[in-house]
Design goal:
The complex is a heterotrimer. Chain A is mainly α. Chain A contains two helices and no strands. Chain A starts with a helix and ends with a helix. In chain C, α2 runs antiparallel to α3. Chain C has three helices and three strands. Helix content of chain C is 72%, strand content 10%. The chains are: A mainly alpha, B mainly alpha, C mainly alpha.
Chain lengths: 91, 256, 211
Amino acid sequence: MEAFSHLIAAFDQEQADADKAAAAAASAGFAYGLAAIGPGIGIGYLVGKSVEAMARQPEAAGMVRTTMFLGIAFTEALALIGFVVFILIGL
Amino acid sequence: MIAEAFKFPEINSILRWQDLFTSFNKIALIAVLAAVIGSTIFILAGRKDAAVAPKGVRNLAETSVEFIENGIVMQTMGKDGMGWTPFLLSLFLFIYLCNVPGIIPFLQMPATARMAIPMFFALLVWVIYNGVGIKHQGIGGYLKSTLFPPGVPVFLYILVTPIEFISNILVRPFSLMVRLFANMLAGHILLVTFALLTQSLFTAETQKFLLKPMAVLPLFMLIFLTAFEVLVAFLQAYIFTILTAVYIGGSAHPEH
Amino acid sequence: MHSAVVHLQGSSLQVHLVSEGEATTTTVAEETTVTGEELVGEGETHAAVSKDPGPIVPEVKELAWGAGSFIVFALLMRFVLFPKVKKGMDARYNSIRSAHESADTERADARAEVAAYEAQLAAIKAESAKVVEAARATLESERQAKLAEVNAGIAERRAAATAQAEAARTAARDQIHAAVSDVAGRAGELATGRRPAAGVVERVVNEVMAR
């Protein structure tokens, strides 16, 4: 009988681990998906405005492009932090 | 069943590498190779006759120098920042040469997808821009211009100063580090995913006639992503370098 | 009385049920955990590690090698490699710039020479135009003089001819007048039988001839 209790304990542990892994995977997916919304909108808006500016003043295109990359870098950081969280809790 | 055939490997097994010899793994190999290749380009470029129109290696080296000077230093620091060109150039080349092995066959691993190298660079840049600020404005002046930005009502400093401290002193190196690391890691994981998907579809045991032709789809995606990673490798090196230049320029001349 | 001994060996969980004298071995639950070793197999360079260090924890050896090679590279670039390439670039740019400048001065010289030549050319042209103008004026005056002379000759001759013709005409007219008067007088005489007065004939003839 003692042997069975050991076995059941082992299975329980395994089941709990699997549950935990499933919950972690699901929440990781949510975390990344939520983290991608804001930066997605932000980068789209930013690039759209930059293209508009470049089309209006092609002679200032170099400066606008540099600033655009800086802005993208700052905006993207949020999504990337979400990605790191995804890696940390999900995989 | 596909679900059984395609099982994503443990994340560490695509990121961590065994030592080639004592305390020297693939990441270290890529870092050393980056330094060696970068130096070799400039050694070869320096040997050629400077008077004639540049060709080949010398052209490559001069193009990179001009890219740093015109594309980064002049855009962010102006003429005063020309002294930073060698540092920014070596930063750019080193990061680029660490990123690019992610798509080179047999290496297939960006060295910057491990935390070590981005962390080192972020700390180095942090030390440098703070040092430059203190050197140019004195420690009091630097703290004043970073933590107490001019043109803000006095009572708002209760709010502004902690935000400025967090964003300038803590978030900057952290975001610098995470941006480079996470971009390269994401690219690496995407490449691994589509490569494994292609392989598992192509070697499917059941429903062969349906599944094997479908392997073309992830293969195309893999090719597209490889091309995309070429761009990302360059862009991330560029962004890291230009942000470094912006931070250094900002602490050298706070009014900008 | 049984007791269970559980072993975790590689990827399999082994349970030994041990009672007095006999032991049964049961293998339970294959593939409990997937270790890195199992995934990559032999000959690969992947580290055989579990989840423990985490994928984003920096490794000291990577940090050391990366930092070391970057520092060596940066110092080499700063003090040896970059200055050499940059010096070459600057030298070439300066030579190109000086060549441009000398080309500019040469071009300016050439322009000045061209301007001087053009000024000379203009002066010569003006002079030649003046000479040509003078010659033309002389020629014109001579031509006018000759023309006037010839015109005078022609006018003289024409006047003489006109006078002659006038005289001839007058003479012929007088003769015609006389003849007509005579004929008219005779005709009148023959018609009327008497000679008309000379004055009347004269008048009629004059009237007719004036018509």
